[in-house]
Design brief:
Layout lengths: L10 E4 L2 E6 L2 E7 L11 E6 L3 E6 L8 E7 L3 H7 L6 E8 L9 E7 L3 H8 L7 E8 L8 H7 L5 E7 L6 E2 L2 H11 L4 E5 L2 H13 L4 E4 L15 E2 L2 E2 H4 L2 E3 H5 L7 E3 L5 E3 L1
Parallel strand pairs: 8-9, 8-12, 9-10, 10-11, 12-13
Antiparallel strand pairs: 1-7, 2-3, 3-6, 4-5, 4-7, 13-16, 14-15, 17-18
Helix pairs in contact: 4-5
This protein binds flavin-adenine dinucleotide and FE2/S2 (inorganic) cluster (FES).
The site of flavin-adenine dinucleotide (FAD) has 25 residues, from strand 5, strand 6 and helix 1.
Length: 272
């Protein structure tokens, strides 16, 4: 472990391995013994030289001293990160943000897209006695990933993994949130955890909260500083980078912006 490393200054890391997850999602592995052991829900700010800096959840690697990012190519910055090859460099600062408050017993985890990343790390912290229901939501079969990894991480737990695709091309047909509503009405969970598209998290939090269940979600907002200075990540009174990114259901549902509004790059509120 490096001593006296200033976690707010980017550390230059070399990409060591690139793994394709889907035609648009890729995992980039590098060495870092601090990001290797972040808490589930924490993120890093990733500098893509010559392009920009992006917030990214820290992906597990199951190799000591290694960390990773799983990135979906979207706009210029994420595409720049996605296109990096083995041997190229990134700058990483952090970890930042809080983490999920892991309960024990019957747990329901709901993830979609790269929102699955913090949930993979959450799975590394469950106890063998926990019974896990893991839901993966995707638009189509082509966009489903981490299914085998979930099975591997849960090999010592009683569990069920349900994949839902909007078009029915794989697993159960329909929105993953319809499955959440069904499950929470049939069974009492000790904890519900969500990360993915905001509407998915909104419906999950509402469904779990309406049954009186403990529920948390990890939010995304536009981030620039990542450390509570610039205000670009505000959601009502909350700064997502510093007060979150993980929030309890009560607090989320009391926030009028959750599930409805976000701030664009100019800081102007837009509807989801
Ligand atoms: C805490 C957190 C964790 C994230 N983890 C992942 C992850 O594991 N994998 C992944 O693919 N994506 C993740 N994202 C989203 C990612 O940071 C990018 O925002 C997204 O990939 C869009 O990038 P872009 O190329 O379109 O940005 P560009 O259009 O190139 O713009 C880049 C700039 O806008 C900001 N920005 C743009 N969109 C967003 C957004 N939705 N959220 C925050 N900032 C934004 C960036 O900080 C940056 O300053 C995460 C976001 C947050 C807030
Ligand atoms: S990103 Fe600057 S305050 Fe949160």
């Amino acid at each position: 472990m490096e001593l006296q490393r200033n976690l707010n200054r980017p550390k230059i890391c070399t990409i060591e391995k690139v793994v394709d997850q889907t035609p648009t999602v890729r995992t980039l592995v590098f060495s870092d013994d601090i990001l290797d052991s972040v808490l589930p829900g924490q993120f890093a700010m990733v500098w893509i030289p010559g392009i920009n800096e992006l917030p990214m959840s820290v992906m597990i690697t199951q190799q000591d001293g290694k960390a990773a990012f799983t990135v979906r190519k979207h706009g210029p910055a994420s595409t720049g990160l996605y296109n990096l090859e083995v041997g190229q460099k990134i700058g990483v600062r952090g970890p930042y943000g809080n983490s999920f408050d892991l309960r024990n017993g019957d747990l329901l985890l709901v993830g979609g897209g790269t929102g699955l990343v913090p949930l993979m790390r959450l799975l590394c912290h469950v106890k063998p006695s926990d019974n896990i229901t893991f839901l993966i939501g995707a638009k189509t079969k082509e966009e489903v990933f981490f299914e085998n990894l979930v099975e591997k991480l849960l090999e010592n737990n009683s569990h069920q993994l349900i994949v839902c695709t909007d078009d029915g091309s794989y697993g159960q047909k329909g929105f993953v949130t319809d499955m959440v509503e069904k499950l929470v009405s049939e069974k009492r969970f000790d904890g519900v955890y969500a990360c993915g598209p905001e509407l998915m998290m909104y419906k999950t939090v509402k469904a779990a909260h309406s049954k009186g269940l403990f529920v948390q979600a990890s939010l995304e907002r536009m981030m620039k500083c990542g450390v509570g200075i610039c205000g670009s990540c505000c959601m009502g009174e909350d700064l997502v980078c510093k007060d979150g990114t993980v929030f309890d259901g009560d607090r989320l549902l009391a926030n009028e912006e959750f599930g409805h509004l976000f701030r664009n790059k100019a800081g102007i509120l837009e509807n989801y």
